[in-house]
TrEMBL record, chains A, B:
It is found in: Mitochondrion. This is D-lactate dehydrogenase (cytochrome). PANTHER family: D-LACTATE DEHYDROGENASE, D-LACTATE DEHYDROGENASE, MITOCHONDRIAL-RELATED. Its EC number is 1.1.2.4. GO terms for molecular function: D-lactate dehydrogenase (cytochrome) activity; D-lactate dehydrogenase (NAD+) activity; FAD binding.
Length: 489, 489
């Protein structure tokens, strides 16, 4: 029996059904499609997983990994399914591991300000459930994201300017390795200098180094007061200048988001807010902290904004409207998708640059994007030098859209930036990563990958391809195994 | 000629002198001792490096690595030499790479709020040199630490509560691999989700995975105002309760440090402050931000402190005294060392626990430490759950001191803590690390080590030993090279 072949796959599925129960492994067509295709992904491929496994605990994930290693079957982890770069596509088939039943909060350590949970906990649901402790988890990507995928893509969101990204909030991870071994990256102190930062290595590895089955997250104190304000500007450059000056004044704003006129139009049309906002370049501010601190931050920010040609800062009239406004911003992509023409597709992607270059790259990229004449908008996490383009298009317009997106990505690289600030590489940005880091740096990543996943079974084909970069002879000799074989290539 | 043997070492040195110049490689006895022994280390060993290399740039470090790999000679990086766990000791001899001549600030990107520099830049000197930009680098370990070593040990300091540790402030690293290849971990955006977090992997790896030759650091805005305040308490528990309540109130204090009565005595005796402080458990506060924000933080903190039996908050009378007070705290270890009895030695070490456990572990550990009847003190980064014990002792008292330290370390582990919050593992805490993480997790670290440094030449003997944990068969087969040989064992 050839390992990795069709009969091996059938045997693997039978063995897993024997171990986990018939119902734990699905080969239903619709199920496979839901786990291999995504309407909002920049890339979709023809291949689908050949089965979906639904483990109930870490031990079952370990059993899956052992069987998959035995039969050389790829494993692709899946939680919220909201990623944008085909991070959970299955180019080599294999088994999708869906954490749907691993959605429990295991422990809330109120006094230590941390929480232990499983991968399929949704971040907004987490915050709802721990609200009574006075604590919250501050990383805020798209509403449907779940913690497992958030770890995998090292995501962030609008709160990143104040609170940082996933890398700053994960205390430890329980990880199932390719061969089924279970490790915990570290214990539960908020700070440690003990040994290699394995936690940080698995964050952002998109499931290619190990399968995360349990996560301890730090929590933050819910601010006494939060206020959401909006400032409109004649130009994007005025808005960007305002943001930079606020940063340099040391004002601890909780978030600053740049929205273009299209995005403001989408918010007006979505109707969740009580007033109609001008459809011009706009900054959304979130001020939070003690009541006196918030007043002070507003005072300084208002002064800087008006000095940069802003109409006055308008505040949401109450907390509810503030939330509605912020939600409107966070649901930007979904709102746009609901307003698109029938038959159209979406290309939503992000880059990040050193912060001083943000106004320039946004200006040029927006001009090029507008010249497409499509329903398209720009959203920026302006304090982080990170922004998003979302473009709706009909299939025949794809080449033109792709051209504009690639020009934006290359421009970011010319400015010493990155091809992705918070979405990850997945399938969609592998070529960009090679341009960004060069073959020597990617070779180091591949060396680490090979050392931990010698049969290349964990989410294969993501971040980089197998062997598209030649390792230097010395390292190859010492690390490459003669038994190394690649699944289904 | 046998590789790794004495004649190989001589040949390696000759070859390096040919490449870098005679003066670039020292074999002077005093030089060797200064690079292999440390008065303040918890551990010292008999072995010394056999030579010290003084490279002038990344290319020269690469040449050193190539020669050392060719002759199988260990390489030990060295910058400030202030580490405490024998992190730069040379148990297998080899060549110490001292960055003394790589001490330049390469670029200050004021508008991007980052700086590019070489490993031997001292952090306080950096802050002095960039002061005119209105920016500073917030990680503040012992005053003599240099950026290279700070990356190696993933250090932090008193500012960590507000600003985080080294992991939060490094944008990218230029790294020379064991075989001399040069890589850059990533480009210069403040945020990225592109590929594996190699930056984070090299931080805290103590030079065992690669030699860091260039560092880009994020900078923060110098706060408009900084005030230093002191509150004294009847018990350590009152001080700890105050700190926890301030955290939970969401007050963004810049730093909170716990000092015991011995440390306050040391500060009084050192004489850098204008008044005599009570020699009781004490919290040092640093408040910083906008002027109004600082006032607000002080108001809330004072209220909480007095509710927890504090004498009133006393403020340094001006900025200069504030700095003097904070410097006194930061130089605690050196002040104690200058006051110790002739012939005595020092054991200075740290652990960290989940924050709610800090009062308990400090109380028990301090009691046991006091029972030794020695000149000894406790200092805590209380917001991080991290604290230090410093004990002065005569050589014959070593066993008793060791016993107390080990009990503290084991206690931290029982509380789900770590054997080191900010000093690293070095030689001193290898056994602790095995207890903390277990053999499976260390095996993963070893697998990564072997993949990047197959001949085990980079700072060998640190963090973990070669082969003290058995890898599982599958991974061993795939990664272990038949050519793998270990230097000088």
């Amino acid at each position: 029996m050839e390992k990795g072949s069709c009969s091996a796959l059938c045997d693997a599925i039978k063995e897993l059904q024997g171990l986990l129960g018939e119902d734990a492994i699905s080969t239903d067509d619709e199920d496979l499609r839901e786990h291999g295709y995504s309407e909002w992904s920049t890339v979709n491929i023809d291949a689908l997983p050949i089965a979906v496994a639904y483990p109930r605990n870490t031990e079952e994930v370990s059993q899956i990994a052992k069987v998959c290693t035995k039969y050389r079957v790829p494993m692709v982890p899946f939680s919220g399914g909201s990623s944008l770069e085909a991070n959970f596509a299955a180019p080599f088939g294999g088994i999708c591991i869906d954490f749907a039943f691993m959605d429990h909060i295991i422990a809330v350590h109120d006094k230590d300000m941390d929480v232990v949970l499983q991968p399929a906990v949704q971040w907004m649901e987490l915050n709802e459930k721990i609200k009574h402790t006075g604590l919250f988890f501050p990383v805020d990507p798209g509403p449907s994201a779940k913690i497992g995928g958030m770890v995998g893509t090292s995501c962030s969101g609008t709160n990143a300017f104040r609170y940082g990204t996933m890398r700053d909030w994960v205390v430890n991870l329980t990880v199932v390795l390719s061969d089924g071994r279970i490790i915990k990256t570290r214990r539960r102190p908020r700070k440690t200098a003990a040994g290699y930062n394995l936690t940080g290595l698995f964050i952002g590895a998109e499931g290619t180094l190990g399968i995360v089955t349990e996560i301890t997250l730090k929590l933050a104190v819910i601010p006494q007061e939060t206020r959401v304000g909006v400032a409109t500007f004649p130009t994007i450059r005025d808005a960007a200048s305002t943001a930079m000056q606020i940063i340099r004044a040391g004002v601890p704003v909780a978030a600053m988001e740049l929205l273009d006129e299209v995005q403001m139009n989408v918010i007006n049309r979505a109707g969740a807010v009580s007033r109609r906002y001008a459809e011009v370049p706009t900054l959304f501010f979130k001020f939070s902290g003690t009541t006196a601190g918030v007043q002070d931050n507003i005072r300084i920010s208002r002064k800087i904004a008006t000095a940069n040609n802003a109409e006055d800062l308008i505040f949401a009239k109450n907390e509810e409207e503030g939330k509605a406004l912020w939600t409107a911003r966070k649901e930007a992509l979904w709102s746009m998708m609901s307003l698109r023409e029938p038959g159209s597709e979406v290309w939503s992607t992000d880059v990040a640059v050193p912060i001083s270059r943000l106004p320039e790259i946004i200006e040029i990229s927006k001009k090029e994007m507008d010249e497409l004449g499509l329903f398209a908008s720009i959203l920026g996490h302006i304090g982080d030098g990170n922004f998003h383009e979302s473009i709706m298009y009909q299939p025949h317009e794809k080449a033109a859209v792709e051209h504009v997106v690639h020009r934006m990505v290359n421009r970011a690289l010319e400015m010493e930036g990155t091809v992705t600030g918070e979405h990850g590489i997945g399938l969609g940005k592998k070529q960009g990563l090679v341009k960004e880091l060069g073959p020597e740096t990617i070779a180091v990543m591949q060396t680490i990958k090979k050392s931990l996943d010698p049969y290349w079974l964990l989410n294969p084909g993501k971040i980089f391809d197998y062997g598209d970069v030649t390792l230097t002879k010395d390292i190859s000799e010492a690390t490459a195994a003669s038994t190394l074989d690649h699944p289904q290539r």
